[in-house]
UniProtKB/TrEMBL annotation, chain B:
This is Hydrolase. It holds the Pfam family GD_AH_second. It comes from the Bacteria. The lineage of its organism: Bacteria, Pseudomonadati, Pseudomonadota, Alphaproteobacteria, Hyphomicrobiales. One of its GO terms (molecular function) is hydrolase activity. The keyword ATP-binding does not apply. The keyword Coiled coil does not apply. It comes from Ollibium composti.
Length: 116, 403
């Protein structure tokens, strides 16, 4: 879970990290354009957020807090719905969102197994 | 577009022009596959490609696909391999190829002394054809005579940021120049139906585009899985809608001129959606069991080459028409540079713009049309897959420009 520090003084409330990409103004997620390692701090919604697990290239983090059932917006369109509360800066993926059309098929395996 | 006139192609009897002059060896049932493999093994590095249909039961779609593939403008001669008792109509296929003016030979293993003598006779026939094709004349070819398909596979979170929109830019420029461009896989357009319908040439076509995606959503829902592989999720894609939005970017921003089905040849230049999801009840399983099934379907509709966007790193090529690999992910490019033609991921590292990569793709298309080998061609990738499907003919609203 990310831990949010207090709003940094003088930081605009919509400021986000340069390693993240905003694809459309109405989006509530940002996309990692570079990998972000375990425990690194990122700027999201004008706050410094320490991320728990690394966020890989092309993965999403929440641009602001997202309520359960809320649409996840990327490219300015809904790409599914949140299945639990998601904090600003938290990794947004199959563990906390789902398709509004058909379910997503994933294979359970450790990162070590997947690296082979 | 100053160098359009520099393209040259092999003129076929139907007026289309090929950018390659391939000898196709086609097995008409799995039982003839081994003989085909042994024949082409004698021509490593040569333009001899193996295609085929494994089933013994007849299938109208597969018959049409094989007819279109064997008379594709990139094909110069065809060897048909039959076991002898399969249901495939080899007589009809052979007549159609002969009527197109191409040399065609059928070898039936049961009537030809078995495996060894069929391999020997087939090898001999292919050698003769290669010698004859070596002296083939070419004629000038314009950019508007090219047909280009696009597919994405091994997608990840970068595909929709770099590779797919860059191909979209290239498609916009090709469509402006009068070329024919095809995008496909309605199962990977789920969630994009409304924005896509707004780009249709006519409101009726817009309705058909929505209906095609709706059919795909129902079809995949019946099967229980979307067009989504576990690697897509590892790469950061969470849902089919998200994958769709990225895939949709390949189509660029041109008006959509029509919908075709596999093997239908577009009537004129422009941007077309290929509906690859079978009609009727789910009978034969997944619409596209791998990326190559879609590539083969676009080739059957006449594509001279395919732009293949990959993030995770597909290494596939294709029989008959070259595949241009556009790598969306900069890390993947560094790992698999020997397999990739275009490094679109450098956009993420601020080393190029979408416009730069779009232009690079258009230039590369011209070079490949002039004979430059793509990475997958050079490496000998000649993947091919064709299985059972069933389609109804397209309705009149699908091709407003043909009316």
């Amino acid at each position: 879970m990310p831990t949010a520090d207090a709003v940094s003084p003088g930081m605009p409330p919509d400021r986000y990290d340069e390693r993240l990409l905003l694809l459309a103004d109405s989006d509530n997620v940002l996309v990692a354009k570079r990998p972000i390692g375990d425990g690194e701090e990122i700027v999201v919604a004008g706050r410094l957020v320490r991320i728990g697990k690394s966020v890989l290239l092309g993965h999403k983090v929440a641009r602001r807090a997202i309520a359960p059932g809320e649409k996840i917006m990327k490219y300015g369109v809904p790409i599914g719905s949140a299945t639990s509360r998601i904090d600003a800066g938290e990794h947004v993926h199959v563990h906390n969102m789902q398709s509004d059309y058909t379910k997503t098929h994933v294979i359970e395996a450790s990162d070590e197994e997947k690296a082979k | 577009m100053s160098n359009e006139a520099e393209l040259r192609g092999y003129l076929r009897s139907d007026g289309r022009k090929g950018i390659r002059n391939v000898v196709v060896v086609a097995y008409l049932v799995e039982c003839a596959h081994h003989v085909g493999r042994e024949i082409i093994a004698n021509f490593r590095g040569g333009d001899v490609h193996l295609i085929g249909f494994p089933g013994c039961f007849p299938n109208e779609y597969a018959q049409k696909m094989m007819e279109r593939l064997c008379t594709h403008p990139n094909v110069g001669a065809v060897l048909l391999l039959s076991l002898g008792c399969e249901s495939f109509n080899k007589f009809s296929l052979s007549r159609i190829v002969a009527e197109s003016g191409r040399p065609v030979q059928t070898l039936t293993i049961q009537n030809n002394g078995g495996t060894l003598s069929t391999i020997e006779d087939g090898t001999h026939w292919v050698s003769e054809q290669l010698d004859a094709l070596a002296g083939a004349e070419t004629v000038p070819m314009r950019l508007d005579e090219l047909m280009i398909g696009t597919v994405c596979g091994g997608s990840d979170g970068t595909s929709g940021l770099t590779g797919n929109p860059a191909v979209g830019r290239a498609f916009d420029r090709l469509v402006d120049a009068g070329a024919t461009c095809i995008f496909e896989e309605t199962g990977e357009l789920i969630g994009c139906e409304e924005i896509m319908a707004a780009r249709a040439l006519t409101p009726e076509l817009g309705d058909e585009l929505r209906a095609a995606v709706d059919k795909a959503a129902r079809y995949y829902a019946t099967l229980g899985y979307g067009s989504f592989a576990p690697g897509n999720a590892d790469g950061g894609l969470s849902t089919i809608e998200e994958k769709s939005m990225g895939a949709y970017a390949k189509s660029g921003s041109s008006k959509i001129s029509g919908i075709i089905k596999p093997g239908d040849i577009p009537p004129a230049g422009g941007l077309f959606l290929m509906d690859v999801v079978p009609d009727g009840e789910v009978r034969f399983g997944f619409p596209n069991i791998s990326d190559n099934a879609e590539i083969v379907e676009m080739i059957a509709s006449g594509c001279h080459m395919t732009l293949f966007v990959t993030g995770r790193g597909s290494v596939s090529g294709s029989a008959i028409s070259p595949v241009v690999k556009v790598c969306a992910n900069p890390d993947t490019y560094r790992k698999l540079a020997g397999d990739m033609d275009v490094d679109a991921g450098r956009i993420l590292e601020d080393r190029a713009t979408l416009e730069d990569v779009g232009s690079e793709i258009v230039d590369l298309i011209k070079d490949v049309a002039r004979g430059k080998l793509t990475k997958s061609e050079h490496l000998g990738h000649r993947e091919f897959i064709l299985t059972y499907k069933s389609f109804e003919p397209i309705g009149p609203a699908c091709l407003p420009s043909a009316a």
